[in-house]
# Entry
Amino acid sequence: MKETLYTIGEMAKLANVSIKALRYYDKIDLFKPAHVDSETNYRYYKDSQLSQLDLIKSLKYIGTPLEEVKKAQEMNPWDLLNFITEQEKLIQMKLDNLMKVQQNIETVKKRMERHLHTPSLGEVFLWEEEETTIIEMAASNIKPNDLTNASYSMLKKAVEPISGFLNTGYGAIFSYEPYIHIEDIVYSKIFAPVLNNQMLSMVPAGMKVETIHAGTYVCIVDAYHPEKYIHNYQKLMEFIETNQLTVISDVYEIFGAMHYSANNQEEFIIEVKVRVA
Amino acid sequence: MKETLYTIGEMAKLANVSIKALRYYDKIDLFKPAHVDSETNYRYYKDSQLSQLDLIKSLKYIGTPLEEVKKAQEMNPWDLLNFITEQEKLIQMKLDNLMKVQQNIETVKKRMERHLHTPSLGEVFLWEEEETTIIEMAASNIKPNDLTNASYSMLKKAVEPISGFLNTGYGAIFSYEPYIHIEDIVYSKIFAPVLNNQMLSMVPAGMKVETIHAGTYVCIVDAYHPEKYIHNYQKLMEFIETNQLTVISDVYEIFGAMHYSANNQEEFIIEVKVRVA
# Structure
């Protein structure tokens, strides 16, 4: 093949890369001009250098970092084949990860939709719930008015590598009793939901994987307010008594932020629910 | 819920993010402390702000850029659900793209392996080839010694959006004749292989999608050298005559770089092959 020298502009056009990229590749010693004019400092490239750019572009296409491309440039064809096989494994990992993200988005969306479609606030209703996997830990004498976001810090740390999403369905558990005052309620457990059943064996000591069973639940949803809380709980009890339902679970309290804006951050939605036979 | 103020260090620990990230979020107005001490400039965060960080982390997990996260913070739950649905589409696009990359890597690897397993250089051999899709364009009176990497510039521009990979199997076509001198050979076409059959309708004017058919080929592979070229071609002809084979295609010449290193860039491998009945 003939050797012709090209200016940086010609080279950029021939290789379909920007002049800026060529300058950058020169600067980081990835791809240097064959000749630099000592007077003008103009860069000149040889025709055969175009195939070097082919490799750079090919590896960039498959997501190889430029530092790794440098190594690949010095490889013989056999090593290059092995190198590409390694890059393929990284792509498989990215694919697996994205598919997990996609799966988790699906579950989060379903839960968000479920919450957006609950009947009006402050009204008792019956709802068929799907099974939810949760990670729970003992609540050390925490009452509704003591619960903070910080209470969930350890649970969130445990859930983050499993679910990624952190913005739905945190809650607490207490036994179903005829409470008169909000101060009478003491949580036995607090919990965080997980979006998939992978990696559940990695739950830290002091935490346990549990299930909120599928079934019929008596529910009430309302904006959180210390005074409304016990009132709503009593509405739930009345509904259960009036309809002669048999309670077969503890009470699950699940809360969520109504807004994530810095301006309305104090508003929370609380859902209280109990499973009935 | 109780409101407690946390220092930046406490907040970082509770939310499982770095202090550096919290400072950065403050700087870019994504997530600002509830209170900054006017004397010490220390940042203080409210407990309820932890749920804002949940949203930030959740959206970061699904790959949302921070600028978009800012918009999401101001959304009501319905808009947030729509927003997440849009993000899901972007993930699907990333997945589709990665799967295409993976497919293309598979094809490139197969072709690289095929070339690494050819018999010794300068020897004629028979090979069962799989079908290859190529994009070809007319070669305007180009002879083997005139062919440059630049000759492929337009073809590569056409192939890049289809295949991504640019480093395998470029070639030229000429008719099978009893050539005596390398100067007698004139290419009719030059071509670039594509790795998949997507987007082939987008080939620019002056180019054509063609197929190098599957079948038995008589091949010779050698390092490129102007004098060896015609000698090897004549070896190919001799083999065909000696074995009384019937040639049923043009001659395909395919070349590849032996190295991509700046030091050995002049070496090319040339494969010359023709299909026989």
